[in-house]
Amino acid sequence: MASLAIPAARLVRSAKHIVPGQLLVTEYLFSVPKDYSNFASGEVQLFARAATKLETCTTIPEQHVPQRPWMVFLAGGPGFGNPEPQDAPLTRFVLKKGYQVLFLDYRGVGLSTPVTADTIPQQPAEQFEYLKHFRQDNNVRDLEAVRNYLTAGVTDPAKRKWSIFGQSFGGFVSLSYLSKHPEGLAEVWITGGLAPISRAPQEVYRATFKKVRERNVAYYKKFPEDVASVRRIAQYLHSHNGVQLPAGGKATARRLLTLGHMFGFHGGIDSVHAMVLRMGMDLDQYGFLTRPTLTQFETFLPLDSAPIYAILHEAIYCYKKGIASNWAAQSVGQELEDFRWLSTDQHGFDDSSFLKDSTPLMFSGEMIFPFMFDDYVELGKIKKAAEALARFDEWDSLYDEEQLARNTVPVYAASYMEDMYVEYGLARETTAKVNGIKTFETNTMYHNAIRAQSEDVLSQLFKLRDDTID
User: Where is the secretion signal located (predicted)?
Assistant: First the structure.
């Protein structure tokens, strides 16, 4: 199917300011069609910040800053906005390389018409129809619309192209962009985001659950005392049928075991231990969980403030028509002995057997489960729409393997052998399908290395660009 013609985004407003370190930051607000196949269906707004380097100025220049090539950062998720440019590790590195940087919040997240239970239609059927438009195929169309606006005055076709840098889910968006609109791209950079482009959700989770188990083993090896602590906290939460959280929702035993979402990050194991330690000390000293502890717990995985992450996470693996997610993580996990807590009673456990076992309780990883729409107060308001989205199988295709096989856009990727979120074996399958890709592979970094070890990652990626292979 031919790609849709993408109109230029409509600028709503913009503003400039200088931040310390000689950065000129421009804030943009654009409007784009909610549905690119039906412009009459309304618009959504996109928020972006651009950063460029000022060599000597200390005030905002009256004249236009000389045009440098664009590099657009595509964040992970989907569900979270971008940091301020001066706070992003990428910014100063790539500015030194001669780019200007654009941080564009995807539709529905950050400041781009954010999706919350209060900002979307209130009827489940209308919520479902609305939320269908917030996947990565439309993220790509949005990017093209913004590129068409920002380069409208550029006469050289080669200079109208821009570079994109996709971290995690941003890599998924990048591969969709390469598939659908390669004419807009000068080069592509990907870190921890070589999407499993032809694997259904169930296949993806069979691979990632194996890696999650490995990270559980590493966690309990580092903190063996947490075997008993986690079980004790789970027993407490289960015996109370969950504990009410300050902002609503419940701390349940099953929600406790989703904290393993952090295991794939640099420092993630330590952050989970810190939460377990705090909860255990509360029970030791008071026999209940204090408000500060519960406040930290409810924001550990902030799905109430980033609901689109939960609503559409599994849909990122529905790569063509005919594939529905059908709560794939739940169906795969409950078949695994180590994660049998997923198949127990409504409170998350069989109190007479499983919780009295002495084996370590295994945490889940980057997975969304139906019970989250009961345990999180904001997710509860969109539960019926989420169920409809899980059954939906009429998604647009996300990738074009024939286009990727004949790709001519330079692609530079970092792939992490110990990645818990984008499984390495599946990432290698994708590497083989993208013509001309150059890949840096390592077993010494985790998924968030672009933040935790940014200088090392970026240096390696630019070596891929600057070094030649005979």
Answer: none
